[in-house]
Write a structure and sequence with these properties.
Blueprint (H helix, E strand, L loop, with lengths): L1 H11 L4 H24 E2 L2 E2 L15 H5 L2 H11 L2 H6 L3 H12 L2 H7 L2 H10 L5
Antiparallel strand pairs: 1-2
Helix pairs in contact: 1-2, 2-6
Length: 128
């Protein structure tokens, strides 16, 4: 889940303020979601399960992504890049990360922007 993703990110870059802030927000959202889950519980099951990541309803599965060795290798390389670390301090980037944390499907929408997709490829070292 998002909390695990941010915790793993902080293991790679423990001083990253954006990740610290995002982790705090994710934890608050998780607590808020637990309260909402309890209030939406029905006889047929939890109404929120249908949209959970990795569930039949779809959604982005952060846990699978964070357990992918290729992704973790790329993330490690990115966190060791001073330009990336500096970029992550940008409030606009922090806002984008927060947006994706709230609705992981927004990542796909962002990647449909050709300029942003190229920038992400360049960050990953694919600047050909």
């Amino acid at each position: 889940d998002a909390i695990d993703a941010f915790e793993k990110g902080l293991k790679l870059d423990p001083n990253n303020e954006v990740l610290k802030s995002s982790l705090s927000r994710a934890q608050a959202k998780a607590a808020e979601s637990e309260n909402t889950d309890r209030s939406l519980h029905t006889d047929s099951g939890d109404a929120l399960d249908a949209g959970a990541g990795g569930a039949p309803g779809g959604g982005f599965d952060f846990a699978s992504m964070m357990n992918n060795p290729n992704f973790m290798n790329m993330a490690s390389q990115m966190m060791n890049n001073p330009a990336i670390s500096q970029m992550l301090q940008n409030p606009a980037i922090a806002q984008m990360a927060q947006s994706v944390m709230q609705d992981p499907n927004r990542l796909q929408q962002m990647m449909n922007n050709p300029a942003l997709a190229r920038a992400m490829q360049n960050m990953g070292g694919n600047n050909q």
